[in-house]
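Supplementary material to the annual report.
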Amino acid sequence: MKKVKLALIIIYLVLFVFISALTIFFVVKTVMKGMDMYFQQNQSPSLELPLKETEVDNLIDLLKKLKLL
Amino acid sequence: MNYSTALKNIRTKVIIFSLGFILLITGYFFLLNFYSKKILKQIQEINSLKEKLSQFQAALQKESQLKKLKFLIEQKANKELPAILFDLQQKLDIDFEKAKNLISERLQKENWKIIRTSFNQEEKKLNFVFQIPVEDFDKFYNFMLDSNLIWKIIDLKVDKNNDFWQIELNLQTR
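Predicted assembly:
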């Protein structure tokens, strides 16, 4: 009877350890993958003006010089 | 119950228990995999929303920058942008007849010696070959600039002789 009890305890322990390991494995895997996905760097679109203020000045001056303005 | 029957019963129970154990673990594995994928899918959705939001913000910023640029151009030119574009179009929009008349009149007015002229009305192309005194070159340049004919030139050949410039002017009009 004692042997049966011991076998049952061992079986429950193995089951518990196996299920815990499986759970930890999936939790870690999900967290790692999720972090990689969430914090991945997206290429931000360029926000530079097509012309700078000095370039606009030069352009207007040039147009005036060429009598187009 | 004899010994072999009891052993058989125990074996059957062990097999059933093992199968149950395997099924339980497999089920749990699939359950965890399912939820893991579900969570990752939701993170992906959040990411795509974040990306859309940043694109929208960038578009808004770009729009405000373009408005700023438009304001800057209008301020420097003292005109509204449509007016600037209209003026430019008017100045650059020289038709065949107008260009022909402008150059012919100027050649006559300045007494510049015409060597050859040829016109292709279908292709709207004009060709003038004429000679101008060396000191008239500025006058010619200013005329081309003031009349905006300078923007219609597709080919220009200038040869300098002793006291005059021989100019071959090829224009493409509308």
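Residues 2-38 of chain A form the longest helix (37 residues).
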